[in-house]
Design brief:
This protein is an alpha/beta fold. 13% of the residues lie in helices and 30% in strands. The longest helix is centred in the first third of the chain and has 14 residues.
Length: 700
């Protein structure tokens, strides 16, 4: 099920239950009035048919509760909105919310110290248990889940195991779960699975959320998230995680951060897009029906069965380790999948530790896949395996294209790859294999990619940049490379300054110049890079870096350019307090700069009655001459008398003397040489502005 469909399900259910809705307010304006009794009354009110619960606590407040709050009206739509000021604490004695029926939205609130304990389902969902038939819909937005806990004391239902229960913060079964901009910290599933979230047969969408220091002990699947099936209706279920991060989570058996288990033949799929998995660990295997003793899987996590797609994501510093045993898949493990696709992703510095044959797949482990694994435009580097496949351990077939596999190590065999995969165009393997070790792909480039350390190089996830002279630069296949790199920069770019744009290998596309639209042969490149290095401008786009040299300069932009060129790149003007111009309120992006320019007498605006500045108006070459010289020399500066130098600027023109002064100073040679013209009414481009600024203010 797509994210759009999840949203439509939530919205549809939401519109269905409003007829009998009864909104409720907790509190009467003071922190003391926001107590459990007031909360119980509000819950009872909305349980009559749905409604929104808000809080009037006179500021920040914590409500300590002694019993779970149930939402159980069939078809109702509930909302709990804490306004960013309210915390509900289960005081480590009770679950906070039991969502049994209808659609529940929880927003802008902190849920802390919830506890679910006992046998079977009693130990599921420390903060929220969302569980009934037909499946409920649960939407979470801007919710902080902190130090919630489940403790499974026993399994009484025949055929069930500890991994069937858990969800230190949230448990969902046969439902639809949407998580947006939420924070999960320090939640624990003890003797069960899913330190933060446990979802069974639920379709899930997670975006913009962080998972830190959550743990799955005992049952030990998924330190942050465990999913067991994705289809509340029996097929076509999906899990999408986007723009999120998982850091320092841990599990006993499978998946330091996640274990996503799907079912074959019912079209279930997982997509990870722009996600960071760092410093997660799976360790301390206690042995289960599904995990062999003395072996753990997936330092960051494992995707088991179904279809798996990983896009624009980074796996770094994750570890699969078992004292006295082996860890498999230090970064990510794929098992028995219908298909596996990895695009524009970085797998760096992960470890599969141990001394036995299962200590393999330091970066990526893939076994049992029904179709060849596809890895495109990715970087797999500096990973370690205690046995084989420091970079990639593959039990089956696969295709590598526009990919770098380098600097990985394995103690016994296949430092880069355990087996040769097909070359789909543009594969780099370094260092070259020796002693009977396989190449990652036939015909792979065996040269140093000069990868830089993992860093924030733009975009939502960290990457490993290519240094100048890298063998990966412009070495790819334009037909095989993705349309962008991991950061979202376009491919191909000219990475070596040769004038031709060819895809680089790996997840990072290098640009030889500072700006993608200012190639080395651009006539104004030196001036543009000078104003950039001086801090006068950062360009017109950060990702990818663009300067827009042909775009016209506005009067608002010009104020910034002039003052930073005069005072230095770190200069900031005083804040605007009382606006001078009717079209530039103090809330305007350039207000402070324009006010400073007017205060120095450099400009009187574009109109006097009423006073206007025209911040979006373009700057002409005639106007530019005045602005430059007054900024440089002060508001009282008077240019030398006009001599009639330019054919299109008679001395009767108000800009003539100013333009001739610039000409005499060597700032401009005009816009045409035969005859010599200045083009006073032409708009100044950003490229021309760079030349004017460097020459006028002698910017080094």
């Amino acid at each position: 099920m797509s994210r759009a469909l999840i949203v439509s399900v939530l919205c549809f259910l939401g519109s269905a239950g409003r007829a009998g809705a009864a909104d409720a307010v907790v509190g009467t304006g003071s922190p003391a009035s926001c107590n459990e009794a007031a909360l119980n009354a509000a819950v009872a009110s909305v349980n009559s048919g749905g409604g929104t619960m808000t809080f009037n606590c006179g500021g920040a407040a914590t409500i300590n509760i002694t019993s779970e709050k149930q939402f159980n009206a069939q078809g109702a739509v509930y909302a709990i909105d804490g306004g960013g000021l309210v915390t509900i604490s289960g005081q480590n004695v009770t679950r906070i919310i039991f969502h049994r029926r209808g659609t529940l939205y929880v927003r802008n609130i902190t849920l802390r110290n919830g506890r679910a304990q006992g046998t079977d389902d009693n130990a599921s969902g420390g903060a929220i248990r969302s569980d009934d038939v037909p499946g409920p819909a649960l939407g979470l937005t801007n919710v902080v889940f902190q130090n919630n806990f489940t403790n499974l004391t026993g399994v009484l239902i025949p055929g069930f195991s500890p991994f069937d229960y858990g969800g230190g913060a949230v448990f969902s079964r046969l439902g639809f779960l949407q998580v947006t901009n939420c924070t999960f910290t320090g939640n624990t599933a003890n003797n069960s699975s899913g330190g933060a979230i446990h979802a069974r047969s639920s379709t899930i969408d997670i975006a913009g959320s962080t998972f830190t220091s959550n743990a799955s002990n005992g049952g030990g699947f998924g330190g942050a998230i465990f999913t067991d099936g994705l289809s509340p209706s029996g097929s076509n279920g999906t899990l999408r995680i986007a723009s999120s991060s998982f850091t320092s989570n841990s599990a006993f058996n499978i998946g330091g951060a996640f274990y996503h288990y799907m079912y074959q033949g019912i079209n279930e799929s997982v997509t990870l897009d722009r996600v960071t998995y760092s410093n997660n660990v799976v360790n301390n295997n206690i042995g289960t029906t599904f995990v062999p003793p003395n072996q753990v899987f997936g330092g960051a996590g494992m995707i088991d069965q179904g279809s798996a797609t990983v896009l624009n994501s980074t796996f770094s510093g994750n570890t699969a380790t078992k004292p006295g045993g082996d860890g498999s898949g230090g970064g990510i493990a794929f098992s028995n999948n219908e298909s596996v696709t990895v695009v524009n992703s970085t797998v760096s510095g992960n470890r599969a530790e141990g001394t036995g044959a299962n200590a393999s797949g330091g970066g990526v482990l893939v076994c049992g896949n029904a179709q060849p694994i596809q890895i495109r435009g990715s970087t797999i580097a500096s990973n370690f395996a205690g046995w084989a496949g420091g970079g990639i351990l593959s039990c089956g077939s696969g295709v590598l294209s526009n990919t770098v596999v380098a600097y990985n190590t394995a103690a016994v065999f296949g430092s880069q790859c355990s087996a040769e995969l097909a070359n789909g165009g543009g594969v780099l393997h370094y260092p070259a294999p020796a002693g009977g070790n396989p190449s990652c792909a036939a015909g792979a480039i065996m040269a140093d990619p000069l990868l830089q350390p993992l860093a924030s190089n733009g975009g939502p996830t960290q990457t490993r940049a290519l240094a100048a002279g890298s063998a990966a630069i412009d070495a790819g296949s334009n037909g095989a490379c993705p349309a962008t790199d991991q950061r979202g920069w376009p491919r191909p770019l000219d990475g070596d300054g040769s004038g031709g744009a060819v895809c680089d290998l790996g997840a990072f596309e290098r640009l030889a110049t500072l700006f993608a639209d200012v190639p080395q042969n651009h006539p104004q490149r030196a001036y543009i890079e000078t104003v950039f290095n001086a801090g006068v401008t950062s360009g017109c786009s950060a990702s990818p870096p663009l300067y827009c040299p042909g775009s016209s300069v506005t009067r608002g932009q010009m104020a910034v350019f002039l003052l930073r060129s005069k005072e230095g790149g770190n200069y900031s003007p005083p804040n605007c307090t009382v606006p001078t111009f009717g079209d530039v309120p103090c809330s305007h992006t350039f207000a402070a700069w324009i006010e400073e320019l007017a205060g120095r007498g450099i400009t009187a605006g574009c109109n006097t009655n009423p006073p206007l500045y025209c911040p979006e108006g373009v700057v002409t070459r005639g106007q530019m001459a005045v602005f430059l010289l007054r900024t440089l020399n002060g508001s009282g500066y008077v240019p030398s008398p006009c001599q009639g130098v330019f054919a299109d600027l008679p001395c009767s023109d108000g800009f003539a003397a100013w333009a001739e002064d610039l000409y005499d100073l060597g700032v401009t040679s005009g816009c045409n040489t035969n005859p010599l013209r200045y083009c006073p009414n032409a708009a100044v481009t950003r490229g021309e502005m760079a030349v004017f600024l460097v020459r006028t203010f002698n910017i080094p």
